[in-house]
Design a protein that fits this description.
The chain has 349 residues and is of the alpha/beta class. The protein has two domains: 8-23 and 134-329, Rossmann fold, CATH 3.40.50.1100; 26-127, Rossmann fold (3-Layer(aba) Sandwich). The chain has eleven helices and twelve strands. An eight-stranded mixed β-sheet has the order 1-2-10-7-8-9-12-11, sandwiched between helices. Strands 5-4-3-6 form a four-stranded parallel β-sheet, with helices on both faces. Helix 1 (25-38) packs across helix 2 (55-67), helix 6 (141-150) crosses helix 7 and helix 8 packs across helix 9 (249-264). The longest helix has 18 residues, at 104-121.
Length: 349
Protein backbone atom coordinates (compact mmCIF):
# COMPACT_ATOMS: atom_id res chain seq x y z
CA UNK A 1 0.00 0.00 0.00
CA UNK A 2 1.51 3.34 -1.06
CA UNK A 3 0.25 6.75 0.02
CA UNK A 4 1.28 10.14 -1.35
CA UNK A 5 2.53 12.24 1.57
CA UNK A 6 4.17 15.22 -0.10
CA UNK A 7 2.37 17.97 -2.03
CA UNK A 8 2.38 18.67 -5.73
CA UNK A 9 3.68 22.17 -6.44
CA UNK A 10 1.29 23.96 -8.82
CA UNK A 11 1.98 27.32 -10.47
CA UNK A 12 -1.19 29.40 -10.28
CA UNK A 13 0.43 32.47 -11.85
CA UNK A 14 3.67 34.48 -11.88
CA UNK A 15 5.15 34.26 -8.36
CA UNK A 16 1.97 32.51 -7.22
CA UNK A 17 2.13 28.85 -6.18
CA UNK A 18 0.12 26.23 -4.36
CA UNK A 19 1.37 23.21 -2.44
CA UNK A 20 -1.54 20.84 -3.13
CA UNK A 21 -2.00 17.69 -1.07
CA UNK A 22 -4.23 14.72 -1.67
CA UNK A 23 -4.55 14.57 2.14
CA UNK A 24 -2.21 16.75 4.16
CA UNK A 25 -3.00 15.03 7.47
CA UNK A 26 -1.11 11.99 6.20
CA UNK A 27 2.10 13.92 6.89
CA UNK A 28 1.13 14.27 10.54
CA UNK A 29 -0.34 10.79 10.92
CA UNK A 30 2.50 8.86 9.30
CA UNK A 31 5.14 11.09 10.88
CA UNK A 32 3.87 10.87 14.44
CA UNK A 33 2.96 7.17 14.42
CA UNK A 34 6.29 6.11 12.95
CA UNK A 35 8.16 8.45 15.31
CA UNK A 36 6.33 6.78 18.22
CA UNK A 37 7.46 3.40 16.91
CA UNK A 38 11.07 4.56 16.68
CA UNK A 39 10.89 5.99 20.20
CA UNK A 40 9.57 2.70 21.61
CA UNK A 41 6.11 4.08 22.45
CA UNK A 42 4.28 1.85 19.99
CA UNK A 43 5.16 -1.80 19.59
CA UNK A 44 4.18 -4.43 17.01
CA UNK A 45 0.42 -5.02 16.94
CA UNK A 46 -0.19 -1.96 19.14
CA UNK A 47 -3.15 0.39 19.29
CA UNK A 48 -3.44 4.00 18.15
CA UNK A 49 -6.18 6.29 19.45
CA UNK A 50 -7.26 9.83 18.53
CA UNK A 51 -10.15 12.29 18.14
CA UNK A 52 -10.79 13.57 14.63
CA UNK A 53 -13.05 15.61 12.37
CA UNK A 54 -12.23 13.26 9.50
CA UNK A 55 -8.95 13.93 7.71
CA UNK A 56 -6.61 13.06 10.60
CA UNK A 57 -8.66 9.94 11.23
CA UNK A 58 -8.27 8.81 7.62
CA UNK A 59 -4.52 9.41 7.77
CA UNK A 60 -4.20 7.45 11.02
CA UNK A 61 -6.36 4.62 9.72
CA UNK A 62 -4.13 4.40 6.63
CA UNK A 63 -0.86 4.18 8.55
CA UNK A 64 -2.37 1.72 11.05
CA UNK A 65 -3.64 -0.49 8.25
CA UNK A 66 -0.24 -0.39 6.56
CA UNK A 67 1.78 -1.01 9.73
CA UNK A 68 -0.53 -3.50 11.43
CA UNK A 69 -1.91 -1.43 14.33
CA UNK A 70 -5.42 -1.29 15.69
CA UNK A 71 -6.95 2.18 15.13
CA UNK A 72 -9.60 3.66 17.43
CA UNK A 73 -11.11 7.04 16.52
CA UNK A 74 -13.57 9.38 18.21
CA UNK A 75 -15.59 11.75 16.05
CA UNK A 76 -19.00 13.44 15.97
CA UNK A 77 -22.13 12.99 13.89
CA UNK A 78 -21.55 16.00 11.64
CA UNK A 79 -17.96 15.02 10.87
CA UNK A 80 -18.86 11.44 9.98
CA UNK A 81 -20.17 12.09 6.47
CA UNK A 82 -20.69 9.25 4.00
CA UNK A 83 -17.21 9.57 2.49
CA UNK A 84 -15.41 9.47 5.83
CA UNK A 85 -17.63 6.65 7.12
CA UNK A 86 -16.90 4.44 4.10
CA UNK A 87 -13.19 5.27 4.04
CA UNK A 88 -12.74 4.40 7.72
CA UNK A 89 -14.78 1.21 7.29
CA UNK A 90 -12.56 0.15 4.39
CA UNK A 91 -9.49 0.74 6.55
CA UNK A 92 -10.88 -1.33 9.47
CA UNK A 93 -10.85 1.59 11.93
CA UNK A 94 -13.00 1.38 15.07
CA UNK A 95 -15.09 4.55 15.23
CA UNK A 96 -16.90 6.05 18.24
CA UNK A 97 -19.39 8.83 17.49
CA UNK A 98 -20.60 11.50 19.93
CA UNK A 99 -23.64 13.73 19.30
CA UNK A 100 -23.18 17.30 18.12
CA UNK A 101 -23.79 20.27 20.36
CA UNK A 102 -24.96 23.70 19.16
CA UNK A 103 -21.59 24.98 20.42
CA UNK A 104 -18.73 23.44 18.40
CA UNK A 105 -16.44 23.82 21.42
CA UNK A 106 -18.80 21.68 23.46
CA UNK A 107 -18.82 19.06 20.70
CA UNK A 108 -15.03 18.86 20.80
CA UNK A 109 -15.12 18.70 24.60
CA UNK A 110 -17.54 15.76 24.30
CA UNK A 111 -15.15 14.05 21.92
CA UNK A 112 -12.24 14.57 24.30
CA UNK A 113 -14.31 13.20 27.18
CA UNK A 114 -15.11 10.05 25.20
CA UNK A 115 -11.46 9.81 24.19
CA UNK A 116 -10.42 10.00 27.83
CA UNK A 117 -12.83 7.18 28.68
CA UNK A 118 -11.33 5.02 25.95
CA UNK A 119 -7.77 5.83 27.04
CA UNK A 120 -8.63 4.63 30.54
CA UNK A 121 -10.14 1.47 29.04
CA UNK A 122 -7.04 0.91 26.88
CA UNK A 123 -4.14 2.31 28.97
CA UNK A 124 -1.50 0.91 26.64
CA UNK A 125 -2.89 2.63 23.53
CA UNK A 126 -0.76 5.33 21.94
CA UNK A 127 -2.56 8.66 21.76
CA UNK A 128 -1.23 10.76 18.89
CA UNK A 129 -2.60 13.93 20.57
CA UNK A 130 -2.71 16.02 17.40
CA UNK A 131 -3.49 19.29 19.19
CA UNK A 132 -0.61 19.26 21.68
CA UNK A 133 2.01 16.82 20.41
CA UNK A 134 5.10 18.77 19.19
CA UNK A 135 5.85 15.93 16.75
CA UNK A 136 2.82 17.21 14.81
CA UNK A 137 4.59 20.42 13.81
CA UNK A 138 7.96 18.73 13.43
CA UNK A 139 6.55 16.24 10.93
CA UNK A 140 5.92 19.07 8.45
CA UNK A 141 9.60 19.91 7.99
CA UNK A 142 9.56 17.57 4.98
CA UNK A 143 6.94 19.82 3.39
CA UNK A 144 9.17 22.87 3.83
CA UNK A 145 11.98 20.91 2.15
CA UNK A 146 9.70 20.00 -0.75
CA UNK A 147 8.60 23.61 -1.26
CA UNK A 148 12.21 24.83 -1.28
CA UNK A 149 13.22 22.04 -3.66
CA UNK A 150 10.87 23.56 -6.24
CA UNK A 151 11.04 27.26 -5.41
CA UNK A 152 14.23 29.25 -4.90
CA UNK A 153 12.60 31.14 -2.07
CA UNK A 154 9.23 31.95 -0.56
CA UNK A 155 8.11 35.37 0.67
CA UNK A 156 4.59 34.56 1.87
CA UNK A 157 2.97 31.30 3.04
CA UNK A 158 -0.82 31.15 3.43
CA UNK A 159 -2.33 28.31 5.47
CA UNK A 160 -5.74 27.49 6.87
CA UNK A 161 -5.33 26.75 10.59
CA UNK A 162 -6.89 24.00 12.72
CA UNK A 163 -4.46 22.33 15.11
CA UNK A 164 -1.64 24.73 14.22
CA UNK A 165 0.68 21.85 13.34
CA UNK A 166 0.95 22.31 9.57
CA UNK A 167 1.11 26.12 9.42
CA UNK A 168 3.64 26.46 12.23
CA UNK A 169 5.61 23.40 11.14
CA UNK A 170 5.95 24.52 7.52
CA UNK A 171 6.90 28.07 8.54
CA UNK A 172 9.44 26.83 11.08
CA UNK A 173 10.99 24.51 8.49
CA UNK A 174 11.27 27.30 5.93
CA UNK A 175 12.71 29.74 8.45
CA UNK A 176 15.29 27.22 9.66
CA UNK A 177 16.40 26.82 6.03
CA UNK A 178 17.33 30.47 5.73
CA UNK A 179 14.31 32.18 4.20
CA UNK A 180 11.93 34.15 6.40
CA UNK A 181 8.47 34.13 4.84
CA UNK A 182 5.48 35.94 6.24
CA UNK A 183 2.99 33.41 7.64
CA UNK A 184 -0.68 34.21 7.05
CA UNK A 185 -3.31 32.31 9.01
CA UNK A 186 -6.77 31.71 7.55
CA UNK A 187 -9.34 30.97 10.24
CA UNK A 188 -13.12 30.83 10.51
CA UNK A 189 -15.58 33.09 12.24
CA UNK A 190 -16.60 31.11 15.33
CA UNK A 191 -13.11 29.67 15.87
CA UNK A 192 -11.30 30.51 19.12
CA UNK A 193 -7.73 30.05 17.83
CA UNK A 194 -7.00 33.77 17.48
CA UNK A 195 -9.33 35.15 20.12
CA UNK A 196 -12.82 35.22 18.62
CA UNK A 197 -15.71 33.82 20.66
CA UNK A 198 -16.72 30.25 19.87
CA UNK A 199 -19.57 29.98 17.39
CA UNK A 200 -21.19 27.83 14.74
CA UNK A 201 -18.82 26.57 12.02
CA UNK A 202 -19.99 24.37 9.17
CA UNK A 203 -16.66 24.06 7.37
CA UNK A 204 -14.54 21.12 8.49
CA UNK A 205 -10.74 20.93 8.48
CA UNK A 206 -10.05 24.45 9.76
CA UNK A 207 -10.92 26.46 12.84
CA UNK A 208 -11.21 25.10 16.35
CA UNK A 209 -13.47 25.28 19.38
CA UNK A 210 -10.63 24.48 21.79
CA UNK A 211 -7.15 25.97 22.20
CA UNK A 212 -4.50 23.74 20.58
CA UNK A 213 -1.08 23.76 22.17
CA UNK A 214 0.58 23.43 18.76
CA UNK A 215 -0.46 26.95 17.76
CA UNK A 216 2.59 29.21 18.10
CA UNK A 217 0.94 32.61 17.80
CA UNK A 218 4.27 34.41 17.55
CA UNK A 219 4.86 32.67 14.20
CA UNK A 220 2.03 34.51 12.40
CA UNK A 221 2.19 37.85 10.63
CA UNK A 222 -1.49 38.19 9.67
CA UNK A 223 -4.77 36.52 10.63
CA UNK A 224 -7.78 36.42 8.29
CA UNK A 225 -11.22 35.31 9.50
CA UNK A 226 -13.69 34.05 6.90
CA UNK A 227 -17.36 33.18 7.08
CA UNK A 228 -18.53 29.75 5.94
CA UNK A 229 -20.18 31.50 2.99
CA UNK A 230 -16.92 33.15 1.95
CA UNK A 231 -15.09 29.81 2.11
CA UNK A 232 -17.69 28.12 -0.10
CA UNK A 233 -17.62 30.99 -2.60
CA UNK A 234 -13.81 30.94 -2.64
CA UNK A 235 -13.78 27.19 -3.25
CA UNK A 236 -16.13 27.64 -6.20
CA UNK A 237 -13.93 30.42 -7.55
CA UNK A 238 -10.83 28.23 -7.26
CA UNK A 239 -12.59 25.44 -9.16
CA UNK A 240 -13.70 27.80 -11.94
CA UNK A 241 -10.43 29.72 -12.38
CA UNK A 242 -8.05 26.75 -12.04
CA UNK A 243 -10.00 23.82 -13.45
CA UNK A 244 -7.19 21.30 -13.13
CA UNK A 245 -6.86 21.87 -9.37
CA UNK A 246 -9.05 19.49 -7.36
CA UNK A 247 -9.29 21.06 -3.89
CA UNK A 248 -11.68 21.31 -0.94
CA UNK A 249 -12.95 24.22 1.20
CA UNK A 250 -9.82 24.60 3.33
CA UNK A 251 -7.90 25.05 0.09
CA UNK A 252 -10.47 27.52 -1.20
CA UNK A 253 -10.02 29.57 1.97
CA UNK A 254 -6.24 29.68 1.56
CA UNK A 255 -6.62 30.50 -2.14
CA UNK A 256 -8.86 33.50 -1.48
CA UNK A 257 -6.38 35.11 0.90
CA UNK A 258 -3.29 34.14 -1.11
CA UNK A 259 -4.77 35.53 -4.34
CA UNK A 260 -5.49 38.85 -2.59
CA UNK A 261 -1.97 38.95 -1.18
CA UNK A 262 -0.53 38.20 -4.62
CA UNK A 263 -2.53 41.03 -6.20
CA UNK A 264 -1.27 43.46 -3.59
CA UNK A 265 2.38 42.41 -3.76
CA UNK A 266 2.95 40.77 -7.17
CA UNK A 267 6.75 40.85 -6.91
CA UNK A 268 6.70 38.54 -3.87
CA UNK A 269 6.57 34.74 -4.15
CA UNK A 270 3.31 33.62 -2.52
CA UNK A 271 2.65 29.95 -1.71
CA UNK A 272 -0.79 28.79 -0.59
CA UNK A 273 -1.17 25.42 1.14
CA UNK A 274 -4.07 23.34 -0.21
CA UNK A 275 -4.68 20.61 2.41
CA UNK A 276 -6.89 18.12 0.56
CA UNK A 277 -8.90 17.27 -2.50
CA UNK A 278 -12.57 18.08 -3.05
CA UNK A 279 -13.66 14.44 -2.96
CA UNK A 280 -14.83 14.44 0.65
CA UNK A 281 -16.62 17.78 0.32
CA UNK A 282 -18.70 17.38 -2.84
CA UNK A 283 -21.64 16.73 -0.53
CA UNK A 284 -22.95 18.97 0.84
CA UNK A 285 -20.72 21.95 -0.03
CA UNK A 286 -20.73 21.24 -3.75
CA UNK A 287 -24.54 21.04 -3.85
CA UNK A 288 -25.95 24.45 -4.88
CA UNK A 289 -29.40 23.64 -3.50
CA UNK A 290 -27.94 22.78 -0.08
CA UNK A 291 -25.77 25.91 -0.06
CA UNK A 292 -28.74 28.14 -0.89
CA UNK A 293 -31.01 26.30 1.54
CA UNK A 294 -28.54 26.84 4.37
CA UNK A 295 -28.29 30.55 3.60
CA UNK A 296 -24.62 30.20 2.64
CA UNK A 297 -24.78 31.49 -0.94
CA UNK A 298 -22.98 34.73 -1.81
CA UNK A 299 -23.75 36.55 -5.04
CA UNK A 300 -20.04 37.34 -5.42
CA UNK A 301 -16.84 36.22 -3.77
CA UNK A 302 -15.36 38.84 -1.41
CA UNK A 303 -12.41 40.56 -3.08
CA UNK A 304 -10.66 42.02 -0.03
CA UNK A 305 -10.86 41.94 3.76
CA UNK A 306 -12.05 44.55 6.20
CA UNK A 307 -9.07 45.34 8.40
CA UNK A 308 -9.44 45.62 12.17
CA UNK A 309 -6.94 47.05 14.65
CA UNK A 310 -7.70 44.47 17.36
CA UNK A 311 -9.37 41.11 17.83
CA UNK A 312 -13.14 41.63 17.63
CA UNK A 313 -14.98 41.02 20.90
CA UNK A 314 -17.94 39.53 19.05
CA UNK A 315 -18.20 37.50 15.85
CA UNK A 316 -17.51 39.86 12.91
CA UNK A 317 -20.41 40.67 10.61
CA UNK A 318 -18.15 40.87 7.58
CA UNK A 319 -17.47 37.74 5.53
CA UNK A 320 -13.75 38.52 5.58
CA UNK A 321 -11.87 40.32 8.35
CA UNK A 322 -8.11 40.62 8.86
CA UNK A 323 -5.74 41.65 11.64
CA UNK A 324 -2.00 42.34 11.37
CA UNK A 325 -0.84 39.92 14.10
CA UNK A 326 2.86 40.91 13.73
CA UNK A 327 4.33 37.73 15.30
CA UNK A 328 3.05 38.62 18.75
CA UNK A 329 1.94 36.28 21.51
CA UNK A 330 -1.74 35.61 22.11
CA UNK A 331 -1.64 37.57 25.37
CA UNK A 332 0.12 40.53 23.74
CA UNK A 333 -2.64 40.75 21.12
CA UNK A 334 -5.74 39.85 23.14
CA UNK A 335 -4.75 40.75 26.70
CA UNK A 336 -5.75 37.24 27.77
CA UNK A 337 -3.67 34.16 28.55
CA UNK A 338 -3.63 31.38 25.94
CA UNK A 339 -5.21 28.06 26.97
CA UNK A 340 -6.78 29.55 30.08
CA UNK A 341 -9.79 27.31 29.45
CA UNK A 342 -7.95 24.41 27.82
CA UNK A 343 -9.22 20.94 28.71
CA UNK A 344 -7.07 18.58 30.74
CA UNK A 345 -5.60 16.54 27.93
CA UNK A 346 -3.25 14.55 30.12
CA UNK A 347 0.07 13.11 29.01
CA UNK A 348 1.35 13.45 25.46
CA UNK A 349 1.32 9.73 24.81
Amino acid sequence: MTHTLLPTMIELGPNFWAARFELMKRVNAFGVVRRARREGLLGPGGMVIETTSGSMGIGLAEVCKEDGYRCILVTDEMALDDYVRQRLRDLDAEVHVVPNDANPGATQANRLQRLDELRRKYPHAYWTNQYDNPWNSESYSVVADEILARLEGVDVVVCSVGSGGSSCGIAQGLRRSGCDPSLIAVDLRGSVIFGLPSGIRRIRGMGNGIEPGNVDHAAYDEVHWLSDSAVIAATQRLASTHRGVDAGPTSGAAFLVAEWKHRREPSKVVCAVFPDSAERYRKPFGDPEWVIGQGLHLDRTPSEPIETEEVPQTTPDADWTMLRWKRRSYQDVTGRPWRASAPDTGRMA
